[in-house]
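Can't paste images in this forum, so I'm doing it all in text. The chain is below; anyone willing to post the predicted C-alpha cells underneath?
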Amino acid sequence: MSSESLLDLAKSRQPADRERLLLAIADLCDAPHAGEAMKSASIQALLSSIFMSLVVEAERDIRCRLSHKLAAADWAPNALVNVLALDDIEIARPIIALSPVLKDLDLIRLLVEATIEHQVEVARRPNLPAKVVSAILEQAEPAVMSALAANPTAELSPTDMAELVEASRRIAAMHSPLSEHPRLTGQLAKRLYLWVGLALRKGLADRFRLDVAILDESLAAAVVEAHGAAPAPEAEPEIRTTRDGERELMEQRLIDKLHSAGQLRPGYLIRALREGRLGLFAGALAVLGRFETAQVQATLDSDRPELLALACAAVGIDRSVFPDILDMVRDLNSGRPGGGAEGARKASVAFAPVSPEVAGAAFRQAARSLATV
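Text version of the structure:
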C-alpha cells in the first residue's frame, strides 16, 4: 500500500478504515527494507499524527500483532513503544524484551508504574543496563529480584552480585539461578552455600572446589545460633539428627500454636518458604484454608500449579505475589508442581474475581482426585 493510500485511510473516521490502516502499517513491517521506508518524512509524520489514537482504539489482537512486529524496530515512535510496553503483559512482553527504542529511563519508569509481571519482564531483558539493575536492587521486589538473578547477561557489578547473594537468604527462588550464574565468584559461593538446599550445595562445591567440611561447620554453627543455643561438645547439630517424623510433629505444633493465638496469617506462608521450610508452608496452608494436608501435599507434587494458585487465592494471597510463591515452592520441591511456564500462566486464572470461599471449594474438588491417586 502506498503512502498516499495510507494518508487517505488516515483521513477517514470510519472504524473499518482505521483498522485497515493499522493492519497496513503492521504489514509494512514485513516488507524488505521496512525500516528505511518508515524513516521517510511522510511516513514519520503520519505515525506521529495518528498512531497513538489508533492503537488506543484498536482491538487487542491487532495491538498484539503490532507489538510483535515493532519489537525489534529501531524506527518505531517512542510514544507508541512506551504505550505498548504498558499494555497487557502478553502485548507488552516482546516490546519490553527487545525494543531498542526503550531507554534506561523508560525501563525504570516501568519498574515504578507497571505491574509486577511487567517488572519481571524488565529484569529478564537481555543486556540489562547497570542503571536499571540498580533500580531493581533498590526496590528489592522478590519476584523481580529472582528474575534478575536468572538473567546472565545483565550488567552486574561485583557489588550487585554480592547484594543478590545476600538477598537470596530470604528469597529461595534466587538460589538455583545464582548458583549457576556466570558472575558468581568463589567467595560469594561460600556465602550462598550456607542457605541453599543440599543439591545446590553439591553443585557449588563441585564448581568452585569448596572445602565442604569447613563450610558444613559454619552451617552448623549458624543453625545453632539461629536457635539461640550452644552446641554440645562433639555433638551433631540438631538439624542433622532430627528425623523427618519428628520435624513434621514440631512444625505441626508450631502451626497449631500460631493458629490458636490468631497469628497464623497468609504472610506466614511466604515467610516459611523464604526460610526454606516447605513442610511448614504446606501445613500452614492446609490449616489456613481448612484443606486436607494430603490434598495440599499432592498438589505440591503434581504437574498442576493452577491448583496451588486456587489454594493460595482461597486464603487471601494476592495475585501479584503468587509467581514468587510458585518459584520458591519449585525451588524447594525439585521443580514441582510442574507445568513449566504454561502451567504458571494457567495458574493466573485462579485469581479471577471470585470469593475465597469459591476458590477454596474449587480447590477441594479438583485436588480430591490427586490425593487419592
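Residues 224-243 have pLDDT under 50 and may be disordered. The two ends are 60 Å apart (CA to CA).
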